[in-house]
Write a structure and sequence with these properties.
Its main location: membrane. It is found in: Cell membrane; Membrane. Residues 28-256 form the ABC transmembrane type-2 domain. It is a multi-pass membrane protein. The chain crosses the membrane at residues 29-52, 64-87, 108-137, 143-164, 176-196, 231-253. 75% of the residues lie in helices and 0% in strands. The chain is globular. The protein has one domain (8-252). It is built from ten helices and no strands. Helix 1 packs across helix 5 (105-133) and helix 2 runs antiparallel to helix 3 (61-91). Mean pLDDT is 81; it is low at 1-6. The protein has 260 residues and is mostly helical.
Length: 260
């Protein structure tokens, strides 16, 4: 029994190392996960410097966008850094080969989650440092933001595995993920305030998980802003979506593209 546990740990560690090497080699994935969100933040920092604060919210454009850009960065890891590699591994037959080895599904999934969670911690830490330097985040905000970010990342990873589980083409998957990311964040009030959108958008936003992430982030960062929901409701909703996506992934995930 001890030998099996030891071998299982070695297998997971090997897969984690292989996962990191894969991401480092794929410059496109590395760019979307780390570099592009920082560039995005810099662009809005420049725009915000020439635009007055919002009279309705009493915060600058950069302050409003900061939670959204953080969510966008985490979403890049969950979608581009999770779904696309899964699609490519299945297309190249790697997933099929894995089923012929002693590797269990649990070991594979755990190793993939560990790699992405470590990457997300790097992302979150980077954004927390930038937020402090930009005077958006205070030291007392760091722990709550970190906790909400990690809970949100679990939900996003579940979504990434779900999408990566049924898409067959890397090119089509990349196009779909790229096309839906920004609109979803806008419709959830993360990138655009609800008061400038039709009322029906705000009503529909309750069905989008990122609505609750953005609401929780802004309640932590800006005490004077009244949240759309109680922050505990936000956290419960994020966890609920995570469970939903996980169950859907378990029911729909496939190791190969072959039809049985």
């Amino acid at each position: 029994m001890q030998i099996q546990v030891h071998n299982g740990k070695k297998t997971i560690l090997f897969l984690v190392k292989a996962g990191f090497n894969e991401i480092i080699r794929d410059l496109k994935v590395f760019f979307f996960i780390i570099i592009f969100p920082v560039i995005f933040l810099g662009i809005f920092a420049g725009i915000s410097s020439v635009i007055d604060k919002s009279e309705q919210l009493n915060i600058s454009m950069l302050e409003f966008m900061f939670p959204g850009i953080l969510i966008f960065a985490l979403l890049s890891t969950g979608l581009f850094g999770t779904a696309l590699p899964l699609v490519e591994m299945r297309k190249n037959g790697i997933m099929r080969l894995l089923t012929l080895t002693p590797l269990t599904t649990g070991q594979f999934v755990i190793s993939q989650i560990i790699v992405r969670l470590i990457l997300s911690v790097v992302q979150i830490t980077l954004f927390l440092i930038l937020g402090i330097l930009l005077q958006i985040i205070t030291i007392s905000d760091v722990v709550p933001l970190l906790l909400v970010s990690l809970i949100g990342m679990v939900m996003i990873l579940s979504l990434g595995f779900l999408l990566g589980g049924f898409m067959n083409s890397v090119e089509i998957a990349g196009g779909i993920l790229g096309a839906i990311s920004a609109p979803i964040l806008m419709l959830s009030g993360v990138m655009m305030p609800f008061y400038i959108m039709p009322d029906i958008i705000e009503d529909l936003a309750i069905f989008i998980p990122f609505t609750y992430m953005g609401d929780a982030f802004r309640q932590i960062l800006f005490e004077h802003l009244e949240g759309k929901f109680n922050i505990y409701i936000d956290l419960a909703a994020i966890l609920g979506f995570a469970v939903l996506f996980f169950v859907m992934t378990k029911l729909s995930f496939k190791w190969t593209n072959e039809k049985i």
